[in-house]
Amino acid sequence: MGDLMAGVRYLGRGQTWVLRNGRWLGFGLLPALVTLVLYAAALAVLALRADDLAAWATPFADDWASPWAGLLRGTFTVLLFAGGLLLAVLTFTAVTLLVGDPFYESLSEKVEESEGGGPQGPETSLLRSLWISLCDSLHVLVRALAFGVLLFALGFVPVVGQTVVPVVGFAVSGFFLTVELTSVALQRRGVPVRERMRLLREHKALAVGFGTPLVLAFLVPLAAVLLMPGAVAGATLLVRGLTESPAPGGADGGRDGEKSRPASPGAGPHPPQGTPGGPGRL
User: Fold this and answer.
1) What is the DSSP letter of 267?
2) What is the three-class DSSP state of 179?
3) Which of 96, 93, 77, 81 is CA-nearest to residue 42?
4) What tens digit of pLDDT does each residue of 169-217 get?
5) Positive or negative CA dihedral for 11, 12, 17, 18?
6) Fewer CB in a 10 Å sphere around the end CB: N or C, the chain?
7) 6 CB-near residues (< 8 Å, 6+ apart)
8) Could you read off the pLDDT of 104-132 as tens digits, one per residue?
9) CA 169 centroid distance within chain
């Protein structure tokens, strides 16, 4: 529970940072606004065609007696739109980060500077940076979609599909959203995407606590646009907490193999361990 609330506090700190630095709030709104317009149009088309898609996908129910065909297709329509909404939430951040890569990289660097500085990113061209971000986002998306397909299927299970599955779905979406948001600061540290996911899996509660409130907020119109700059700022602060916190008990991780815990969001910066981005600090 402590790590879960720490994730929420990092998110709050990020939103507070951009509110105190209003220029950067406006700076980060444009890419999210462009992406939101594109996603809103796609979801509107899906909502208009969901009934037709449900009928096309369930031809075997044409001869079913009433009300079973309607119930099946109604459930399929709801789950189809929910799946589209989940996919939108999972991919919105990745697409926004791609569209606004220079904006959010500058914002993240400014956050690091205000907290005492951070590592210099590798010297790469903009096109090379966008290509790396695209490949990393696809790597994350494939894994997120695998969970999404499983949760979609479990949604047909009576009771569990309408109670437990949505809660798990929000938590899974929150985790992968955190993976995407932390990519800006972790790429600058030279941490490859597989290591990023491993790092956040070791701190699942922290990642879920940070990302799940954003997933819920992103369901509100325009909230994704307004919160995106603060989400990038908060993710940068979260990365600093994970990569700069000293391991309890020394370099061996403490007694009995205890893992290091993230630094408290309220704490100041700690001396970094080892070379930035090197394997020894993860």
Assistant:
1) S
2) helix
3) 81
4) 889 989 998 998 999 899 888 888 889 889 999 999 999 999 999 988 8
5) positive
6) N
7) 206, 209, 241, 262, 264, 265
8) 888 999 999 998 877 776 666 667 777 77
9) 13
